[in-house]
Design brief:
Radius of gyration: 22 Å
Oligomer: single chain
Number of helices: 9
Number of domains: 2
Distance between the termini: 48 Å
Largest sheet: none
Strand content: under 5%
Structural class: mainly alpha
Number of strands: 0
């Protein structure tokens, strides 16, 4: 089993946003900055980049969570020989950081460590499987149900098999 980067980073982004939401009640500077913390830095507008540069080096919990997010993103770019060791260090940082949402993410990564590390060697992700699943779900919705499981299985083979049929009457 392999856990892909998308799903790991999705959980990290949710945790960063949760930290920001809790802290914005006491810090007015964090109001209306949600997408600044969630977007990648190269996708920010000039105005958003300016606001992020002002906030990211402050002594804010949201800034600390953001730095943890950026560090984890960088780990996914490391070579497979050192990435697992650096990921262990990140997990320890996450467990000690005293930001409850980030601690939960670190625990989740620790729990699924083997599957996440397998990503570095296999370079697999589950986007293909999710694409096939979406085709199957669309076929189920289109038919509004099937009379039997065998009919559903036959439809899955027809959709997923990419079969071509020749017209026997044309030559």
């Amino acid at each position: 089993m392999t856990f892909d980067k998308f799903h790991v980073m999705k959980n990290v982004n949710e945790s960063v946003d949760e930290v920001r939401r809790k802290e914005q009640k006491t810090c007015a500077d964090l109001k209306n900055t949600r997408y600044i913390w969630l977007k990648n830095e190269n996708n920010l507008t000039a105005e958003q980049k300016k606001a992020l540069d002002k906030l990211k080096d402050c002594d804010l919990q949201a800034a600390k969570a953001y730095r943890m997010k950026i560090c984890l993103q960088e780990i996914f770019r490391y070579p497979s020989s050192i990435a697992p060791m650096v990921l262990k260090d990140w997990i320890q940082w996450g467990l000690r950081c005293r930001l409850e949402p980030m601690v939960e993410v670190a625990q989740m990564i620790q729990k699924h460590y083997d599957g996440i590390v397998r990503l570095f060697t296999s370079q697999l992700n589950n986007c293909l499987l999710e694409g096939v699943n979406s085709l199957i779900q669309a076929a189920k919705r289109k038919a509004r149900g099937y009379r039997s499981v065998e009919n559903l299985v036959a439809m899955i083979y027809l959709i997923g098999g990419k079969l071509t049929f020749n017209d026997p009457t044309s030559k």
